[in-house]
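Single-chain item
Fold in token form
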Amino acid sequence: MTNAQLASIQWGLFLSVLFLVPQYLLRLLTWRSCMVTGYVSMLFAAVFLPWQSTPPRQALQLVPFQWVADTLRDGEIAFHQMTLNILLFVPLGAMLLFWGRRSFAQAALLGFGISLGIETVQLLWANRIFDVDDLITNTVGTAVGWALVLSVLGLRARVVAGLPAEERVMAGVR
């Protein structure tokens, strides 16, 4: 992990605490608000922090799967970056299914749209590269998060379905 990535994670944790403390003090803190606040804080930090004052040498990277060649050339840094991009969007996919009740296609499109917005803002405002690989990996991350929640809910339903009727009632399922 690079120093910039570690700094982004530290900033994300700091922002999470900064925004969660007032919610706690005002007794507005719920699991959902905690998850959303933490996720948005980490997403913001990964996108914008640490701030880059000088523009990159290359503003656009429009070659799909360029990260594979970069990994072969530079080692594991590009691979780790793509892995982190996927992991960063897994919670979005999970939230879109669990709370938003979105279909797979809707979740993937929303993940792509949010990623496209982020990449555009990074290019125009944050002195970062617009990278088509980020669009791909962020969309994949959203889809993976959606699929993971669906798998967990399906597994839970199968386990609960095997329980006797009185235990299903205790589990909150008819």
